[in-house]
Write a structure and sequence with these properties.
globular; about 15% helix; eight-stranded antiparallel sheet; 1 helix; mainly beta; about 170 residues; three-stranded antiparallel sheet
């Protein structure tokens, strides 16, 4: 029976891998593609990670992630007390949901909209857009705050996490 479940697992993993290969549309400029943790679709390139600090950040730390050193990870808390560890990105493939919201923005001067995976609709984070239309050239017009726990790098190798616990050896 264990062999049967393992073969099913391998079959599913093969189909996911094929699906990911067929769905790759992000240009690869950086060290690693970032994938939706739910469906495996590529949603960003680690090349576009940059640092944009929120004044409301509860914690800010540097981590080595996605083939890069010193990525800024911020812990932000929404009005309901839910904590999110995010990274900020210049570009990401997001399906933005709803109108821009100005209330409770973690980044003053920016409105926000929910950002979802364009393939499966899983919540990836938020797209922030500047309110200042007359801003200087070095001002960032828009960026994405991506929830770290909702993505993974393409070089993620812990296949045991995908296998149900009862079948791990």
């Amino acid at each position: 029976m264990l062999i049967f479940y393992f073969l099913i697992f391998l079959s599913c993993a093969s189909q996911i891998s094929t699906s990911i290969d067929n769905y790759s549309k992000v240009e690869k400029h950086g060290q690693e593609l970032l994938l939706c943790r739910k469906c495996g679709a590529d949603v960003a390139d680690s090349h576009y990670i940059f640092t944009k600090i929120s004044p409301g950040s509860r914690n800010t730390e540097k981590q080595n992630l996605f083939g890069r050193h010193n990525i800024t990870v911020q812990t932000l808390v929404n009005p309901f007390g839910v904590k999110f560890d995010i990274i900020t990105m210049e570009k990401a493939r997001c399906q933005n949901i709803g109108p821009n919201q100005g209330a409770d923005s973690w980044f003053p001067g920016y409105t926000w909209r929910i950002c979802t995976c364009p393939h499966c609709g899983h919540h990836l984070g938020w797209t922030f857009e500047s309110n200042d239309k007359d801003s200087p050239k070095d001002h960032i017009a828009y960026f994405h705050g991506i929830i770290l726990s909702n993505i993974l790098g393409e070089n993620f190798t812990d296949s045991l996490i995908m296998m149900p616990k009862m079948y791990r050896m």
